[in-house]
Amino acid sequence: MALNDKPNKPQTDKNHSFFQSFKHAARGIGFAIKHETNLRRDILIAVLVLLAAYFLHLPQTDFLWLILVSFLVFQAELWNSVAEYIVDLTTQHAYYPLAKVIKDLSAGIVLLTALFAVIVGAIIFIPALLKLLNLS
Length: 136
Ligand SMILES: Nc1ncnc2c1ncn2[C@@H]1O[C@H](COP(=O)(O)OP(=O)(O)OP(=O)(O)O)[C@@H](O)[C@H]1O
Hints:
Blueprint: H1 18-35, H2 37-55, H3 60-91, H4 97-132
The chain binds adenosine-5'-triphosphate.
């Protein structure tokens, strides 16, 4: 081992390069995809919705809206996981009324974002489906 080599010490200081920051951020997303069933479900729904938009030949602005709401839902899921892990780390799964408030608020963020996504999806898809069925 060379003098400058560091032993395998877990990193707790700041990242020293863009590559290091990127690597840790990508690992965070990978962790969320691996461990969060809700996030995997949201990704699957987003892919199906975008495929439907493609086959319905929806305009580019509709795609942008659908991509925007999809990423907002992904973000909300990740923030929800952040809140859950911080609560679990600090409470060690002991019951605290304030921990419940934090987790419920965090779940509320996901619910509100999902509601927004459903509204945008309905505004985009209902007229497109009516047109497809010659009902408008
Ligand atoms: N330490 C705690 N103290 C008090 N209440 C808690 C605590 N941990 C969880 N809860 C309550 O139990 C619920 C479920 O907890 P859990 O950790 O499974 O959150 P959840 O994982 O939010 O659910 P989801 O996976 O649907 O996002 C929370 O919404 C909260 O109301």
